[in-house]
Amino acid sequence: MAESWKTAFRSFYYANAPEPEDIVLSATNTAVLVIDIQNTYLEEPEEEAERERWRPFLERMRSLVIPNTAELIAEARKRGIEVIFARIACLTEDGRDRSLSQKKPGFNNLLLPKDRNDSQLIPELQPAGDEITVLKTTDSALTGTNLRLVLHNLGVRNVVVAGIFTDQCVSSTVRSLADESFDVVVAEDCCAAATDDLHRHELEIINMIYCQVVTLRDVFSFFDASL
């Protein structure tokens, strides 16, 4: 029998905490936020050793995260729930407008001009109609954009989060949302980190205090049955 979301992903701090209350997500105050599922992250590395190193991540993305996120988006649209996308994209060609965290050497040193193909959202997960996409040069989708104002103007209090990377932009966004007193739900099988260990470890860190970590099926069970 699968473990309940109310007891799963418990860290040391919350091992003995009471179970959280039931969650109800209404179309009137809920948004789905999809973070950084962009072309650049689905490209296979040229070097064989790097391809092998990233193979588990790419397999998780193709077999689980992308189809699950597409299902989440479709269900949200059917219920009239706002779907919002965030992507890493600088406004200048040389990236001089990027935050310091995206200029430092290493994995997070990203140069993704907003109009270049590798910075675009993947074809399977594209906005429809007038759905909003925010462009960011920070890890948090809240800190570096007008998303806070957008959510406020939309009357959103609950945010369902999907995307990558669990331990970087997803976590940073979740923490920012929590600090702004949004109720956050992370659909863990709509997210991925570079490794499963990093993914699970970060979920244990953010669960209970910054968000509730659940599965896609749990999210569907939270949607207001009257809708």
Q: Which range does the strand content fall in? A: 15-25%
At CATH level 2, the architecture is: 3-Layer(aba) Sandwich
Structural class: alpha/beta
The gyration radius over C-alpha positions equals: 17 Å
Number of helices: 5
Q: Separation of termini? A: 29 Å
What is the general shape? globular
Q: State the share of residues found in helices, binned by percent.
A: 25-40%
Number of strands: 6
Order of helices and strands: EHEEHEHEHEH
CATH topology: Rossmann fold
Largest sheet: 6 strands, parallel
Adjacency order of strands in the biggest sheet = 3-2-1-4-5-6
CATH level 1 name: Alpha Beta
The total number of structural domains is: 1
Let me know the CATH homologous superfamily: Isochorismatase-like
Low-confidence stretches: none
Instruction: Summarize model confidence as the mean pLDDT.
Output: 95
